[in-house]
């Protein structure tokens, strides 16, 4: 049972089956940008739906938000990003390669020679990771703005709006899913580190003296979430940030790391941001960002516990976790994606044994009934074994085959992707049977 040893085979499967493509491929691609194909977009939508439900449906005290990507430039001064969202950058004078200084070996740092071509390295300089653009049509007068490097700030600046309109009382949270952009110096490892990506962030507002307890609660809630998307706990662990690793806003921070083929790496961050963000926005905007307790009338600045997950990175972890090359009894190898049925892009494939003799019509009618609730794929072409293998690579948990007996006894064969076992079910029971195993919960 071979699991993934590198991203190479996954990249190839992702392209072959239509999960993920290089962006602008016909023009030679653009570095560190990816497009999600027909299967990838369904998979990613399911990831977002699971996260959204786990936040806004599971807890009565979390509401949603969808803030604009473009924000007032002062937001990024207040947040500390203009001054501090930088990485130390060095260039090779000969081959022009760029490196993050903190990723260079001790030897390169001392000799100041480039690890790739032996050329001389420049002194390091601080490189801001935010993408700049211009707002307004008239050049010169147009103001410089940024593509947001995190979704979090959209939540902080809307804190008073949400308090005023939603009747939420502390403790409560605001959840948001959206794109973020970082001009990473060393992107790579497929969709692990890209320049455009999606975040799923939740900011939980609490009384300052309760923040340590809430931090622990959210650590536990977040690590146990991964069961729902089919990531086993044995491939996850916490890593605490040491005092010198803490971001400028963080009082305490833990990463949830996943055992990727490149080794243990960050999947999600959980931070106690203290009252840093609200105080900064109060100072820079001149607007009050405090909270008045409706029972006691006490006024204070809440602390924030943040959970910040990368949607693409979570999708990558799910792809890694699902991938398997299985050697069968006859010596052949089948590649199978063992997605949890809730997360699988296609839930069920409808496969008539042959097109003729009424099997196609019967199958299409069944597909039309099931597609109201599930993402169903219909395939009538090629040998049935080949069609099963395609569905194994797509990670489709159930294949339903319609044969000539079906026309007589109204029973279908359901093949399980993982065990390859087949059972015969009355077609009238099929919907309930599938719903029990698949529906997003
Ligand atoms: N608001 C806090 C924040 O943005 P972060 O640790 O910088 O914290 C949170 O980012 C998560 O976003 C990471 O754990 C990762 O999953 C994802 N992420 C960050 N940079 C990324 C990138 N360049 N490509 C893909 N995902 C990224």
Walkthrough of the structure:
The protein has 441 residues and is α+β, with helices and mostly antiparallel strands. The protein folds into 3 domains: 215 residues, Bira Bifunctional Protein, Domain 2 (BirA Bifunctional Protein, domain 2, 2-Layer Sandwich); 43 residues, no CATH class; 95 residues, Rossmann fold (3-Layer(aba) Sandwich), CATH 3.40.50.800. Helices cover 31% and strands 28% of the residues. The protein contains 14 helices and 23 strands. The strands form 7 sheets. Strands 3-9-10-16-13-12-11 form a 7-stranded mixed β-sheet, with helices on both faces. Strands 20-19-21-22-23 form a 5-stranded mixed β-sheet, sandwiched between helices. Strand 7 and strand 8 form a beta hairpin. Helix 2 crosses helix 10. The longest helix has 20 residues. It starts with 7 loop residues before the first helix and ends with a helix. The structure holds glycyl-adenosine-5'-phosphate. Glycyl-adenosine-5'-phosphate binds next to strand 10, strand 13, strand 16 and helix 10.
Ligand set: glycyl-adenosine-5'-phosphate
Number of domains: 3
How much helix, percentage-wise, in residues?
Answer: 25-40%
Number of helices: 14
Contiguous low-pLDDT stretches (5 residues minimum) are none
The name CATH uses for the topology of the largest domain is: BirA Bifunctional Protein, domain 2
The chain-level structural class is alpha+beta
General form: globular
Strand content: 25-35%
Query: Reading side by side through the largest sheet, how are the strands ordered?
Result: 3-9-10-16-13-12-11
Biggest sheet architecture: 7 strands, mixed
CATH superfamily name of the largest domain? Bira Bifunctional Protein, Domain 2
Distance between the termini: 29 Å
CATH architecture of the largest domain: 2-Layer Sandwich
Task: Give the class-level CATH name of the largest domain.
Answer: Alpha Beta
Mean pLDDT: 95
* Rg calc: 25 Å
Number of strands: 23
